[in-house]
Amino acid sequence: MSESVKIVEVGPRDGLQNEKQNLTVAQRLAFIQDLVAAGLKYIEVGSCVSPKWLPQMAQSTDLFQLLPTDTDLHFSLLTPNLKGFEAAAAVNCPEVAVFTAASESFTRKNINCSIAESFEKFADVIQAAKMKNMRVRGYVSCMVDCPYAGAIAPEQVRDVAKRLYDMGCYEISLGETIGTATPDRVAKVWDCCLAELDAAVLAGHFHNTYGMAIANIYQSLQQGIRIFDASLAGLGGCPYAKGASGNVATEDVYYLLSQLGYETGIDVEHLMLASRNISQTLQRKSLSSYANAYWAQ
Ligand code: HMG
Ligand code: MG
């Protein structure tokens, strides 16, 4: 049997948070239903953040309550603090994600606190999650470069990732937030982190600003990473990372992995329909090379 790779679909959160237009709850639900039909089982649904900061993510808990309840589906919400956590817990969301960075200046711009303060907030979230038997995923942004501070030392990424893991996050996703990294630099970060953390608890979250995301995923696979975040049609970007564009497209990750013989659980025809639907809803061309080639045939 072929080895499997876990894809965490972040389009409904990372993808839509960066769109100029705010989709309705019904449109967001249709997007997620399409993703489920395509075989995606791990989906970040939205964020419980201040709607003043990110109006695109407003009503994420309303959306959550409309989701299918099949037990093999894993839906999560992004929560920066206890207030966000409580909103997620109130709708019985089984998993939340906390997010900080390996860069002080990025953390300040993104969540308005220092890295140390973010750990304090997360300690409360993780403790509350444990009491409710909820899982917590951790994100570390700026795994290679920060839009404000420049190059980030791999040791700094390792230390933040290790701290989140030791605090109780079951999986740590390293964010290549601005998409400037090349595989040689990504390799150094994994080397450093893998000295302290098992590959099974590490995920790669690559943005594709400079077209390097698939190369970086290939590099990560060589080093044993088997969990990747991706966003349908290459939607996405962090509003607090100037110039950063979309996440790696789920369709392109599917193509790479299936050609390399990995199992992803994805049904390609439904994935293409999902891709076409969200591009039509947003009235823009998909950023996925694979999807564009597929529809051009
Ligand atoms: P703050 O202003 O420091 O918070 O923001 P505050 O505690 O002073 O509260 C200010 C107001 O926000 C108050 O309301 C709070 O009630 C409200 P007011 O009294 O003014 O009416 N508030 C909240 N409302 C709803 N939900 C909450 C919440 N918390 C406070 N959870 C805060 C701090 C974190 C809230 C703010 O900075 C924020 O919302 N930031 C948004 C961050 C964000 O979502 N960034 C994008 C996601 S991260 C990302 O994309 C990177 C990633 O993809 C990986 C990668 O690519 O690198 C994960
Ligand atoms: Mg991101």
Automatic annotation (TrEMBL):
GO molecular function, one term: hydroxymethylglutaryl-CoA lyase activity
Superkingdom of this protein's organism: Bacteria
Pathway named in the protein's UniProt entry: Metabolic intermediate metabolism; (S)-3-hydroxy-3-methylglutaryl-CoA degradation; acetoacetate from (S)-3-hydroxy-3-methylglutaryl-CoA: step 1/1
All copies of domain Pyruvate carboxyltransferase, residue ranges: 5-272
InterPro entries: Aldolase_TIM, HMGL, PYR_CT
GO biological process annotation, one example: ketone body biosynthetic process
Pfam families cross-referenced by the UniProt entry: HMGL-like
UniProt keyword list: Lyase, Metal-binding
Record EC number: 4.1.3.4
Enzyme class: lyase
Family named by the database record: Belongs to the HMG-CoA lyase family.
Protein name: hydroxymethylglutaryl-CoA lyase
Native organism: Acinetobacter larvae
